[in-house]
Amino acid sequence: MTKKKHPLLRLSRYGRKYRVLIWQAAICSVLNKLFDLAPPALIGAAVDVVIKQDNSIIAQFGITDTFQQLLIICIISAIVWGLESAFEYTLEKLWRNLAQSIQHNLRLNAYSHVQDLELAYFEDRSTGTLLSILNDDINQLERFLDVGANEIIQVLTTVIIIGGAYIIMVPEFAWMAILPIPFILWGSISFQKKLAPRYADVRDKVSVLNSRLANNLSGITTIKSFTTEAYEIERLRIESENYRQSNRSAIAFSAAFIPLIRMIILLGFNGILLYGGMEVINGNLAVGTYSVLVFLTQRLLWPLTRLGQTLDLYQRAMASINRAMDLLDTPITIHSGNLSLPTSNIKGEIQLKNITFAYNERQPVIENLSLNIPAGDTVAIVGSTGSGKSTLVKLLLRFYETNLGTITLDGIDIKDIDLTNLRQSMGLVSQDVFLFHGTVKDNIVYGNNTATEIEIIKAAQIAEAHEFISNLPQGYATIVGERGQKLSGGQRQRIAIARAVLKNPPILILDEATSAVDNETEAAIARSLEKITRNRTTIAIAHRLSTIRHADCIYVLEYGKIVEQGTHEQLLAKAGVYNNLWQVQTGVRVNI
Question: Which of these, 540, 533, 460, 531, lies nearest to 495 by C-alpha position?
């Protein structure tokens, strides 16, 4: 098994195009910290002026007047504070804009990648888990870049600058201030290693929690109808408690960092305070230099206590980066072909040659199946539940790849055709109708936003939907609700048919397109199907045989194999499987 790269390396590889911006932000962080560290030196210079006056360091430059010396320090202080503030503004702006840019592009890239994954990927994962990665995990990265990255750079700058100042100014006891630093860094690294698995567990727990919430909100009607509200609250309580306990474990460990580091820092600070003070009393160290050392020690060591919070942000971000990058690294198994095939050039002849397909290495759903669908014909596929009817549709649209055999469109292997062109050539009306939250018009024009009002109304009329749409409160501007929950099943079905009609594809696939409508609506749709299917290849999958009796050819599918084929009259004459299904549906009891 290949060892996973460090999250920062994975992020760095992803964010190559942001390197200039990262360097600009990092340089501003360093410069801001340099000017932030200048005041202790200015305080030391001021003390030196007050005590030594015309023998001070500044006096060595020819300025002996005490007031002028202090005025110069004031002017330098104003410049330093001004530059510090300017770089503070710049670094905040750069880091925050960087965080927003990376967050924005990472979310778009991750979502785009998710859209390219095969359906099997979604069957193995919950919607809540994917939402957690696309939203919460990417937000964790933003929070780290907003604050944590700048904190780390400034701490490193502080250690290097002040450590160097100690070595230059008082090399004989610089070790007192520097000695705690290796222990602090060692403690920080140790805490980081201990925190990493804890925050990985936190990210896993929040994914499970989000999955539960997303699943329950989608199934709220079922929850209410089965009066399982208390049961679902208990299940949510368990998942939320698991998340709380996982966070508690990480927090307990993270919170211990600052108190422990504070004790180590205290040793270095007291060492400088005591030893340096005695050196001043003994005349071996200037008061100004001692003042600078005390201030620098505080500026060096106390900021290290914030490492706990920074590490907390860091570890949360690293756990989230791994999850986001794992998603981006998920291989795409269904690749687009290179052959461009515009819809206007497609005739619609489909051939399936010796097709075999199984889901996730199970028993084959379709086995060695061959059939020919001439261009412009209406072909129906019927059979019992689980016989592989809907699977054929998924294979035609390349939602899944065949295990064996080939599928051709106008004599071209569909694997060679540009995937967008292939799917644009087919209009699918599924039994599981999905409407987006928005207006009726938004859902009809979905995929064809350039359609005119006249074209939209005509499509709705063909689908027998115009009349009920006109009677809605706002007509075509009526909000349908999430998944179209404000409409009846038959209304959703007719809007889906109108959407397919407006798309005007050369191939129309009706997968149980009338399964959710009443007999009257079914009859109306059946009348419109004559118009819809004219001059286009149509594949109709149906349980209701009355809706496909006029098909040019009917294939009867059982256990992934074609057991009968012919017209409605021919199949009735055979007195086989189709005939039995027909008699059952028309109310004639048959002994089988």
Answer: 460
